[in-house]
Amino acid sequence: MCETLKNNYQICEEIGRGRFGTISRCFSPIKNDFFACKSVDKNLLTDPTDRECLQNEAKIMSLLSPHPNIVEIFDVYDNEDSLDMVLELCEQNTLYDRLIKSNGGFSEAISASVMKQLLAAIAHCHRFSIVHRDIKPDNILFDEMDRVKLADFGSAVWVAEDGTVSGLVGTPYYVAPEVVMGRDYNEKVDVWSAGVVLYAMLAGFPPFYGETVEEIFEAVVRGNLRFPPKVFRNVSPEAKDLLRKMICRDVSRRFSAEQALSKAPMDLEWRRDSFNGLICPCKIQESTVEASTANSLSLCGVYIYNYLSSHRIPTFLCAAQNPMVNTSRISVFSRPERREDGRNGQRNSHMASSPVGGPAAKDCDLFLFCFIFFGLVYAV
């Protein structure tokens, strides 16, 4: 870590660590704000390709900044031994962490909100002929306003003059089949990966998996996209059609980021909610009611939703209107991890589901129905 950086920023605690360096929280007395400092030890980079990627990361992020859905870079300090980048500070919980916490995936509304912002970031990259090449939940962060922030451009490259890129880069579950097969590819590999992320958000697990990396690659190359009825019964036909066009083996027929962005069903407005640290949709059609009535209905709805969330009441209202978690789904989403039998596997035997209601839940149903009904009548 260079001395110039230490003169301009106060280095605080470490918040992340990778193969070649660390990420620390830092404070700027001049700007009176906190940032993230990514420090890479160049002595650990023995491969010339890794060194080139490190230099490209800072250049690419500088070119793409600022964008509302891409982690912004503010300063770069480069010397013989290290490269330090001062970046926008995001929440520590990634999309991967939120998927694990959801225990079965998100509702279509939540998934649509995240995907809209992710596709906006990817489309912005592609306009500059930049391919990210490592789109995955771990690299999708959130700021304090819960906006999506695409991060980690260490694998990103510029598209060549012929419009192609080469090299086996990416993460097994999310990498496109043309990359696995060793062919030249274009920016649409990011769209494939984003489609896999969307599938994982809706289902709670990725569409292609196996016990080993080789089995995962084989499943990716086959590209047999399935929608298990029990898992996708609450997912709209439009969302499934979008998945088919994003996770399409035929690159010529696969959507571009701009096409996917234009086809995604994004007609909801969003607000921060305290339930599981996720985002909660809250939209009132003010064209059909007066503004004051709309505000009253919105406030009443938020109170009701917060009551349901805090008390975890397993009623028909929770299942039908809770957009946070799909209570009917039983699935697992996880990284490949070492199991007790010694194998690396995506799935394990621990399945979890939401609690089911008993006789007391019926009384809660009646109480909540009356509460909602008279609340709305009073508001109108």
From TrEMBL:
Q: Which InterPro entries match?
A: CDPK_Ser/Thr_kinases (IPR050205), Ig-like_dom (IPR007110), Prot_kinase_dom (IPR000719), Protein_kinase_ATP_BS (IPR017441), Ser/Thr_kinase_AS (IPR008271)
Residue sites binding ATP per the record: K38
Q: What keywords are annotated for this sequence in UniProt?
A: ATP-binding, Kinase, Nucleotide-binding, Serine/threonine-protein kinase, Transferase
Q: Where is the Protein kinase domain?
A: 9-271
Identify the residues that the record assigns to the Ig-like domain, covering every copy. 229-331
Which terms does the record give in the GO molecular function aspect?
Answer: ATP binding; protein serine/threonine kinase activity
- The keyword Coiled coil is annotated on this UniProt entry: no
* Region Disordered: start-end pairs: 335-356
Q: Where is the composition biased (Basic and acidic residues)?
A: 335-344
User: Pfam families per the record?
Assistant: Pkinase
What family does the entry list? Answer: Belongs to the protein kinase superfamily. CAMK Ser/Thr protein kinase family. CaMK subfamily.
**This chain belongs to which protein, by name?**
Protein kinase domain-containing protein
The organism encoding this protein is Populus tomentosa
Source taxonomy lineage? Answer: Eukaryota, Viridiplantae, Streptophyta, Embryophyta, Tracheophyta
